[in-house]
Write a structure and sequence with these properties.
Blueprint: E1 20-28, E2 31-32, E3 37-41, E4 47-52, E5 58-63, E6 66-74, E7 77-85, E8 88-95
Parallel strand pairs: 1-8
Antiparallel strand pairs: 1-2, 1-5, 3-4, 3-6, 6-7
């Protein structure tokens, strides 16, 4: 079993002027996917972190600014999304095939 922390909740106490937050949801067939694994990979596809989506399909990572790849794996499918994250809040959606 993955030791990833539960996702969801507010960003209370997070200084978005100095921190880079990547968050979003995983979707499949028009609905959020709970319990999906979301991996954060760097620009060279090196594994950096992994979390499990909340009941609402939400995930969140704290990262450095730069190019990142999100890869999601679930029984219903798999999806990827590449994004350039800046300091502040970076929101995205990963859609499973």
């Amino acid at each position: 079993m993955c030791g990833a922390p539960k996702q969801g909740g507010a960003l209370a106490g997070i200084d978005l002027d100095t921190q880079t937050v990547i968050q979003g949801q995983v979707w499949h067939d028009g609905a959020p996917v709970a319990g999906a694994y979301v991996r954060l990979l760097d620009a060279t596809d090196e594994f950096t972190a992994e979390v499990v989506t909340s009941p609402e399909g939400e995930f969140r990572f704290f990262a450095a600014p730069g190019e990142w790849k999100l890869r999601s794996l679930a029984p219903t499918g798999r999806g990827e999304r590449v994004l350039a994250a800046d300091v502040g809040l970076n929101e995205t959606t990963v859609v499973l095939d």
